[in-house]
TrEMBL record:
This is Flagellar hook protein. Residues 369-444 form the Flagellin C-terminal domain. Pfam families: Flagellin_C (PF00700), Flagellin_N (PF00669). Residues 3-140 form the Flagellin N-terminal domain. One of its GO terms (molecular function) is structural molecule activity. It is found in: Bacterial flagellum; Secreted. Its main location: other.
Amino acid sequence: MRISTSQIFQNGIDVIQRQQAEISRTQNQLGTGRRILSPSDDPSGSVQALQFESRIEQTKQFQRNGGLAEQRLRLTEVTLASVGDGLQRIRELSVKANNATETDETRRYIAGEMQQVLNSLVDLGNTRDANGEYLFAGYKSQTQPFVMKNGEVEYQGDDKARQVDISPVRKMAVGDPGNQVFGDAGVSGALKDGNGTFTTLPGDGNTGSGVISAGSVVDRGDWQDALAAEVEITPPDPDPPFVESVSYYKVVFDDGGENYSVQAFNADGEFLGPGDPAGEAILEEADQIALGLNELPTDVPFKSGESIAFNGISFDIKGTPAGDDAFTIRPSEPQSLFTGVQKIIDALNSPVGTSTAPVNNAINCGLSELDNALGHVLDTRATVGARLNALENQDNLNRDQILQLETTISEIRDLDYAEAISRFNLQQVGLQAAQQSYTQVARLTLFDYIR
């Protein structure tokens, strides 16, 4: 085999270039701190590193979502605190107005201040976040949720709660629809009038000084059974029997106002029994089968302030009701807190004649509704606080996950500096040896042997 001078030179250059390439790669590894500079360095490790990087970016997005949700929820919490302060002020004014020393003029002054507080409550219901979106409009975040129409506050949002992802398997509500927070006539399960279970109302035609309390529930089961009761009435003729449901009750006073009876009515205002002598005779003739109606108080002597109890509820009437005065007791119905406040304002603006009973009845009912509204707002604030705590816990969990993923990536991709520096020094020695060998070989030539 013949070896030419050019081949010797080329082999020497190739060795030097390979050594330089290896040193350059090691220098890049030392500069970046990474063992894998391209997928070809470690195909399996590169795929794993890309998967973990994707998980890290996804988790960081969840953290950003949580940060935005936290800002919105904190603004919601502050807003609800202001709503609670406004309701508390209205309650203080209501207690002040429920005083016999107040006149029509002073009550109008109090109503004027209440109206200003009510306007501020509506403004709080229309609070916007930093992005200009309404907090309490549900999905309709660009629509003003509460507007005043014909003297009433109407809700224009929807009943959906906006949510964001804070983990691959967890969503968090970043707000509450306004009809759930502030109540609405079309939403069941939110705010209700009266004491939240039943409402006590004076009759429009009352002329006495009787003032009915908001009442309380003694046995919720009995009350619910009474509402579910159906009255089967079989007429004297052969027609099939028909069924009526009890819709509400009335406490009705006799001509002298000394005795009262509790009567039951259906949704159409038709008498079901007992307590009305004429109605009793008709129902007795018709062979009425009534669940619990025969236990309603009938012709009971009235004593001011003494408890009146039936079907698991209790209340009292103070003052002196006139003959034929009546008080209605019906199940509570959905109502917004704005409507409850407006009813108090309207009552205070109405002139009072010889008896303050109408305004006292309105304020008694209003105070009960204000207490319910305050409790409801506090409950909502509690849920907001719970969500803030959940966001904080999830953020800590996301941080731990990111740290664990970055640690795993480091084990796969990062460089072992001790090994790399030792390898770099060895490669430098190899390059120097190759360069020196090339210098010695380059001095040899066939021309030195030609004479």
